[in-house]
Design a protein that fits this description.
There is one protein chain. This protein is of the alpha/beta class and 374 residues long. It is built from 16 helices and 13 strands. Helix 8 links the parallel strand 5 and strand 6.
């Protein structure tokens, strides 16, 4: 049985939002389009996309925003143009930056800029990490929150010091805000307050929002216009952006309104995990509605336990697992969304107990075993 088929059989799912299958998702999009009399855009020109770009820009406190087919394209383009403006090709990035970890050396192979790893890969940035760099930087790319270290945030005073330091040194400060909406609850501040002092911000249209894909890049009107032109040069000028925009726009307000509830549910999950000290949690206290669990079993065993719980009890604990730094350990990620929000407290505690029991005695059953509802 495939992973997706096994997950569909589960009735207690920990990570993320409920996954709609294409027919259901497209039907919801069609109904929303009918209700709002939506037409396709043509190469980015149309009432829906332009009004949504303006809405995202206003929500972030910027003059303008533009749709891009992927965050991967949006970020390296923004950083490239920022460096061109400042006549320095050097960009400071955290060692866990998405650009380093997930983008297959695009910045290097496509000659966008030169990247300098800065800071401790296990800690969020401090102002001194950046301000002690002796090189003349063209840009700084800061992820908020830092996904690869469990959704950690730089302390607010450090973030403000980073903003001041970049401004004083004439460095373009760019935010990888793929999960910025999630950081607002952790900081207790609005997305616009967090984004104030940045020169550009990328946000995802599918991660926390549950859309089909795509991204927005926000900044000054002139900078956004230059980035839009470079998106076209890189093949991003698709004729209709409307499927991506509809999928994000129709749930945008509800998802943002739910972020405080997701954060409170994350706090409850942390409290429930205290009963299981063998499961180590990073960060130690919630900073966004996501977290990493460090497990005392190998990656392969973690995946086998996941599949056995799914087959036997209808519990889906996590999606992927990564090798831990120590032998026979692993790391998994949980994004707290609609699934955990809808799960009862008792069901959550029981699922964690079953999971902890498996970790303590990780003999696993085959994934084809029947699901019981106990």
């Amino acid at each position: 049985m495939s992973e997706s088929a096994l997950q569909r059989r589960c009735h207690k799912i920990f990570p993320g939002h409920r996954q709609r299958r294409p027919a259901e998702h497209f039907a919801a999009m069609a109904a929303w389009c009918e209700q709002h009399d939506i037409d396709h855009d043509v190469y980015g020109n149309g009432d829906l996309i332009q009004s949504f770009e303006a809405k995202v820009a206003a929500t972030l406190g910027f003059e303008a925003a533009v749709f891009c087919v992927s965050g991967t394209m949006a970020q390296v383009t923004a950083l490239r143009l920022a460096c061109l403006e400042r006549a320095s090709r050097m960009v400071a990035l955290h060692p866990t930056s998405h650009i380093f970890v997930h983008e297959r050396a695009n910045y290097q192979l496509l000659d966008h800029f030169q990247a300098l790893p800065v800071g401790d890969r296990h800690r969020p940035w401090t102002a001194s990490d950046l301000l002690d760099v002796p090189d003349r930087l063209g840009a700084v790319g800061l992820e908020i929150p830092m996904r690869e270290i469990g959704g950690q945030l730089s302390p607010w005073d450090e973030l403000e010091a980073i903003k001041r330091g970049c401004r004083e040194r004439g460095i373009h400060l760019h935010m990888d805000g793929a999960r910025l909406w999630e950081a607002a609850a952790g900081y207790g501040r609005s997305a616009a307050q967090i984004a104030a002092g940045f020169d550009s911000v990328y946000v995802s249209l599918y991660k926390g929002l549950g859309g089909l894909g795509g991204a927005m890049l926000a900044g000054s009107r002139e900078f956004v216009a230059r980035c839009a032109e470079w998106f076209r040069r890189q093949g991003g000028n698709v004729i209709h952006r409307s499927p991506y925009v509809v999928a994000a726009a129709m749930d945008f307000d509800a998802r943002l309104a739910a972020m405080p509830d997701y954060f409170r549910r994350t706090q409850f999950l942390y409290a429930a995990l205290r009963a299981h000290p063998a499961i180590r949690v990073n960060p130690a206290a919630p900073q966004a509605n996501m977290l990493h669990l460090h497990l005392p079993v190998s990656r392969d065993t973690a995946l086998a336990i996941r599949d056995a719980l799914a087959a036997e009890h209808g519990i889906w604990m996590y999606n992927r697992a990564a090798h831990g730094a120590l032998p026979d350990t692993s790391v998994v990620e949980i994004y707290v969304g609609d699934n955990l929000l809808a799960m009862s407290d008792d069901a959550l505690r029981l699922a964690l107990q079953r999971f902890a029991d498996r970790l303590a005695a990780p003999a696993v059953a085959g994934a084809g075993a029947p699901i019981c509802t106990g």
